[in-house]
Amino acid sequence: MTEVTTVRRSRITPEREAELYAAVLDLLREVGYDALTMDAVAARTRSSKATLYRQWGGKAELVVRAMRHQKPGSIGDVDTGSLRGDLHSIIGREDDCVMEQNAALMRALAMAVHMNDDLRRAFKDLLVEPEVDEFQRIVRRAIERGEVPADNPALDYMVHMLVGAFATRTLIDDLPPTREFLISYIDAVVLPALGVSPR
Question: Which UniProt keywords apply (predicted)?
Fold first, then answer.
């Protein structure tokens, strides 16, 4: 696995970092990944381009770290005592407005990820793999509790099912993903595939 590393030569306060990340995501929604430039980020955030490159190395890492920063903490720490409770709890951490914004970001990045090796690598290393690892912790606990047989073939596709529902809601139904939709999808599709009662 290629590891994305950042050499930080100066400190940016957490508040300033959060402002920068918010500006990056706003620009990404406005113009898309290809038209997003470090010059535009520097202008929007009143930063020097040299500082941005020194802190993040380039556009790909800056964008993916901004997306990672806006996530509400580790999902692997969620432990309600049941797989259904854990999955519902994860969905409940973001309101419908935030989900719609995240879906828009995913659409903005979907084509760019396939066309840009740096972005794909940063996306995988900084966002996808950590998220998969966190989901695996939740699944391991469900297996240890005896909720899901360890040899259930659907386990390998759990993340695909959840991401697929989130990403394709707009494409198929022309509607944004919502808590209600994702919770009903978990109960109707994900849990039955894993052999877990949705009630």
Answer: DNA-binding, Transcription, Transcription regulation
Q: Is 127 exposed, middle or buried (0-12, 13-18, 19+ CB in 10 A)?
A: middle
Nearest CA to 71 among 12, 124, 114, 130? 130
Q: Tens of pLDDT along 164-175?
A: 898 889 889 999
First to last CA, the chain: 40
* Helix, coil or strand: residue 91: helix
* Distance from C-alpha of 20 to C-alpha of 26, rounded to nearest angstrom: 10
Its pTM stands at 0.76
CA dist 82 to 20, 139, 185, Å? 37, 10, 17
CA dist., res. 120 & res. 112, Å (int): 8
What 3-state DSSP class applies to 7?
coil
Dihedral, 159, 163, 180, 150 alpha carbons, nearest 10: -10
Tokens 């049941």, residue?
82
Tokens representing residue 58 in the block: 């380039």
Write down the residue that tokens 């770290």 correspond to.
65
| Long-range own/partner contacts, residues 133-138 (CB < 8 A, 24 or more apart) | 133/76, 134/74, 134/75, 134/76, 135/75, 135/76, 135/159, 135/162, 137/76, 138/75, 138/76, 138/78, 138/79, 138/83, 138/86, 138/87
